[in-house]
């Protein structure tokens, strides 16, 4: 895989740095691990890894995520992670033919929801963050969990990628 893949990280809420001090380093490790796994298993969503992959990650809070969730999904409540995949745009595939890199899209994660879910599920915050980031990355590659079969496939990919990071299956009881 091309080593010029880029995770553009925007730390929108300073509490992230206090809560997860090396979130930038960890986010890049998760990003690289996920892309390496997808590449090594030829799960390229039809555009290959011959060009750099670019993803934007915004670490924000419940208030901003709630606005985005309301405006784009019609759900007026915060959620843990939102993904805005460029592959869903009509122009993506036409522009991809001419592009030097693949701009996959944007992911935004809400700190307070991450924290409350981590506490509720008794998961280390760092591990739950990794899970949400992997989940978001998979959405950008076109995976979803709308149907049982696709949900099973996506969950298995999440489990496998997290395993590469020495994180236990987040779905086991």
- Number of alpha- plus pi-helical segments: 7
End-to-end separation:
35 Å
How helix-rich are the residues, as a percent range? 40-55%
Work out the radius of gyration: 16 Å
Sheet with most strands: strand arrangement: 1-2-4-3
Provide the succession of SSEs: EHHEHEHEHHH
Write the layout of secondary structure elements.
Blueprint: E1 6-11, H1 15-19, H2 23-40, E2 53-60, H3 62-73, E3 81-85, H4 92-96, E4 102-110, H5 111-121, H6 125-140, H7 148-164
Parallel strand pairs: 1-2, 2-4
Antiparallel strand pairs: 3-4
Helix pairs in contact: 2-6, 2-7, 5-6, 6-7
Structural write-up:
This protein has 173 residues and is of the alpha/beta class. A four-stranded mixed β-sheet has the order 1-2-4-3, with helices on both faces. The chain has helices spanning 15-19, 23-40, 62-73, 92-96, 111-121, 125-140, 148-164; strands at 6-11, 53-60, 81-85, 102-110. Helix 5 crosses helix 6. Helix content is 49%, strand content 16%. The relative contact order is 0.16. The mean pLDDT is 91.
Task: Give keywords.
173 residues; alpha/beta; globular
Would you summarize the structure shown here?
By secondary structure, the protein is α/β, with parallel strands linked by helices.
């Amino acid at each position: 895989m091309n080593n010029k893949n880029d995770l553009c990280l925007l730390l929108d809420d300073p509490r992230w740095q206090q809560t997860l001090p090396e979130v930038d380093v960890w986010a890049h490790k998760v990003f690289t691990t996920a892309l390496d796994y997808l590449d090594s298993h030829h799960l390229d969503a039809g555009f290959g890894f011959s060009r750099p992959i670019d993803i934007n990650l915004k670490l924000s809070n419940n208030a901003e995520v709630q606005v985005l969730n309301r405006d784009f999904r019609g759900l007026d409540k915060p959620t843990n992670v939102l993904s805005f995949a460029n592959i869903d745009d009509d122009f993506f595939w036409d522009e991809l033919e001419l592009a030097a890199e693949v701009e996959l899209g944007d992911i935004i994660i809400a700190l307070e929801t991450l924290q409350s879910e981590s506490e509720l599920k008794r998961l280390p915050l760092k591990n739950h963050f990794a899970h949400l980031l992997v989940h978001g990355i998979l959405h950008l590659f076109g995976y979803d969990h709308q149907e049982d079969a696709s949900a099973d496939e996506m969950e298995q990919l999440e489990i496998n990628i997290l395993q590469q990071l020495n994180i236990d299956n987040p779905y086991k009881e």
